[in-house]
């Protein structure tokens, strides 16, 4: 009789989350949690709302000046947020 390779509880849980589609939502939450560190305190304080849906990061700001500044750096922000979770989960960014 051949022995099976033992799986860790973490591996089993990861497989389960992937199977039910929750792993993507968890990564989206991690990306949103990283927002403050990625954009800095000033922009984070001005952020009213942040959401990720279908690969689109939507961010709403109080100040038009901050909104304009962030709009000019969309590509870098998307790249850094994807790096924060180790996977490309964001492909576009809407700044409101």
Structural description of this entry:
It is a single chain. The chain is 58% helix and 18% strand. It is of the alpha+beta class. It has one domain (27-95): GMP Synthetase, Chain A, domain 3. Strands 1-2-3 form a three-stranded mixed sheet. Helix 2 crosses helix 6. It is elongated, with a radius of gyration of 17 Å. The protein starts with 8 loop residues before the first helix and ends with a strand. The model has no long low-confidence stretch (mean pLDDT 90).
Tell me the distance between the termini: 62 Å
Class of secondary structure makeup: alpha+beta
The overall number of domains is 1
**pLDDT average, as an integer?**
90
Uncertain segments are: none
Biggest sheet strand order reads 1-2-3
Strand fraction band? 15-25%
Number of strands: 3
User: Number of helix segments?
Assistant: 6
CATH topology: GMP Synthetase, Chain A, domain 3
Radius of gyration: 17 Å
- What is the H/E order? HHHHEEHHE
Q: Give the overall shape, derived from the CA principal axes.
A: elongated
CATH architecture title: 2-Layer Sandwich
What is the CATH class? Alpha Beta
Fraction of residues in helix: 55-70%
Write the layout of secondary structure elements.
Layout: H1 9-20, H2 22-33, H3 35-39, H4 41-46, E1 47-53, E2 56-61, H5 64-72, H6 74-85, E3 92-95
Parallel strand pairs: 2-3
Antiparallel strand pairs: 1-2
Helix pairs in contact: 2-6
């Amino acid at each position: 009789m051949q022995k099976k390779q033992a799986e860790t509880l973490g591996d089993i849980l990861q497989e389960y989350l992937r199977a039910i589609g929750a792993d993507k939502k968890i990564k989206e939450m991690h990306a949103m949690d990283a927002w403050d560190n990625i954009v800095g305190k000033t922009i984070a304080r001005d952020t009213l709302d942040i959401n990720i849906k279908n690969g689109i990061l939507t961010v709403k700001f109080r100040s038009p000046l901050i909104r304009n500044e962030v709009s000019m750096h969309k590509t870098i922000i998307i790249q850094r947020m994807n790096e924060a979770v180790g996977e490309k989960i964001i492909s576009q960014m809407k700044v409101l």
